[in-house]
Every structure is written in C-alpha cells, then in structure tokens.
Design a protein that fits this description.
- The protein is α+β, with helices and mostly antiparallel strands.
- It has ten helices and ten strands.
- The strands form two sheets. Strands 2-1-5-4-3 form a five-stranded antiparallel beta sheet, sandwiched between helices.
- A hairpin with a 4-residue loop joins strand 7 and strand 8.
Length: 299
C-alpha cells in the first residue's frame, strides 16, 4: 500500500486558468498542485517571476502555437519549480496551461495528452457531450477523405417533437432533461463508428456508413430510434422524434476535399436535404420517418 501511495504522489500536476483579454484570471478551472496558491482576479504575469516577463508576453500575444518550457514561477505562490506553459484559445475564451513535469519524456507525453483532451472538449457540445458543428464537420471531412467515391453515406436528421411545449409547460430544466434523454437514446442505439452531432436546441444529425445490401443502414437506424422512444415510460420529459433520412455517395463532395469552403458548402447541401425530410415528418404528424428523393434512387 505504501508503494502505491508513493507512486500516486509522483503523478504530474497541472493548472488550467481561464483568463480575460487583460490577462487576468477569471476562473481557476483546474489546479492539482497542493502548494500552488492561485486565486481568481490575479494577473497572469504575477504568477511568474519578473525575469519571465518577455517570454510570457510572447506566449500571450502570439497568434502562433507557442509553448514555452522551463518557466520560473513567482516564489511567493509557494512553489519553487519550473513549468511548461501554453495558451489555448477556443472562440472568445482563453485558457492558460501550467504543467509540472518529472522528466523530459513525461513532459512530451503529458503535453500531447492534455492538448488532445482540450481539443476533444472544443469539438463537443457542452450539454450532451456529442459533437458540435465544428467537431462534426472535421470528423465528416476525415471520414469522406478515407471513403471510396462510390461509398454511400447515410444522414439521419433527428428533430425532437414538442420540446417547446415541454419548456413552456414544465420549464427549461425539464426541457434539458428531455434533450439528454434523447441523447442517451441516440448514443445507445448507434455504433461506435457512427458520428452524432447536436445541430441546434432540439436537432441532431447522425452520419453512418451504408453497408452493402438491399436495406439502408441509415433507415434501419431511424426505425430503431422510433422504436426506442416508443418503449419509454411516459414521463414529463419524454418525447417522440421526427426523422429525415438521406443517402448520398461520398464522391459527391470528396471531389472538393482540398477546397474547405466548397467542401462545407456541398456538405451543408446534404444536411439540408435530410433536414427537409425531417420537416416533412413533422408536418405529416410527427413521430415518423421521411426520406429524400436521393434515398429512393438507392433503396
């Protein structure tokens, strides 16, 4: 037991600080170092020794991906150590990383891991943890880049029914519960390699690779989603789904893979078609599946 405790005590520490445009700390997101005393409202320059002013300035003001090693902390904070630092920007939010290390090898490995984790967070919807639009587009682009031009991809557009009624009747907390309930159904019904994204308040999109055969993978998934919602116990937050299914060949948009703007334009057209099919399901009475004209060409 003592050996295990000793090993745990050698795990590396990290501090993640959210800072504003004036470089003041607005939130201590993470601080695992027991001796490092950092508080909200402190200017980030005061965290480091005066000798580090110009190196720190380069990290904070550079538009490039700049990381500085062996930065000396301000000894008044209670830690006499050197650290690595990096600034990560996500939209209008700025996060400052401080990383403690035991060795150079751990330094590189841990740095890559934390950057990967933060990148993953920036690609996810904060409520549901499924992909957001940005992360979704990147994953789709990667999928299509590896697909044969003749490979069929299915788009399942999911629109929650009567979410506004739930919000108006029971409040937004119950509405959030409805969204999370649908998210759980989507995640539990799809495969690991399927891509799920939240497109708006009550809208989700799933992209699947169509399997060979006479039946559509996307349509089969849509049917399972309707079945899963129908089997729920009747609660204030339960809701049905209006679904649109669209199928297209990867070559429709992979031809413009190197032109990002054109690629996104063509991809958005495919999403719009699935969205229109979901809207038809909604206007036809909800809790059903509609397909696009392109779908009928294949199935």
């Amino acid at each position: 037991m003592k050996t295990i405790q000793t090993a745990i005590s050698h795990f590396l520490d990290i501090a993640i600080l959210k800072i504003d445009n004036e470089d003041n700390i607005t939130e201590v997101v993470v601080n695992t170092h027991s001796k490092l005393k950092i508080s909200k409202g402190t200017n980030i320059y005061k965290v480091f020794s005066k000798e580090e002013k110009f190196r720190l300035k380069r990290v904070l003001e550079s538009a490039l991906d700049v990381r500085k090693k062996y930065m000396e902390l301000n000894k008044t904070l209670g830690v006499n150590e050197y650290v690595d630092v990096k600034l990560f920007e996500n939209g209008n939010e700025r996060y400052f990383f401080i990383q403690f290390f035991e060795s150079n090898r751990e330094r590189e490995v841990m740095y890559d891991r934390y950057i990967e984790k933060l990148t993953n967070l920036s690609e996810r919807d904060p409520m549901t943890k499924v992909l957001n639009r940005q992360g979704f587009e990147e994953k789709v682009k990667r999928l299509i880049s590896k697909s044969d031009p003749k490979k069929k991809l299915g788009v399942v557009y999911v629109d929650m029914d009567k979410l506004k009624t739930i919000n108006d009747t029971y409040g937004h907390e119950m509405g959030d519960k409805a969204i999370l309930n649908v998210t759980n159904i989507l995640v539990s019904t799809t495969r690991e390699r399927d891509l799920i994204a939240r497109m708006g308040g009550d809208e989700f999109v799933i992209v699947v690779e169509e399997m060979t055969g006479s039946k559509s993978t996307a349509y089969g998934l849509a049917k399972r989603l309707l079945k899963a919602t129908s089997m729920q116990k009747d609660q204030k937050y339960t809701t049905t789904l209006s679904i649109g299914v669209h199928v297209f060949e990867a070559g429709k948009i992979s031809c413009c893979f190197k032109d990002h703007e054109k690629f996104i334009e063509l991809w958005s057209e495919q999403i719009k078609k699935a969205d229109q099919a979901a809207y038809k399901s909604k206007t036809d009475g909800r809790n059903r599946i509609s397909v696009t004209k392109e779908y009928t060409k294949y199935y």
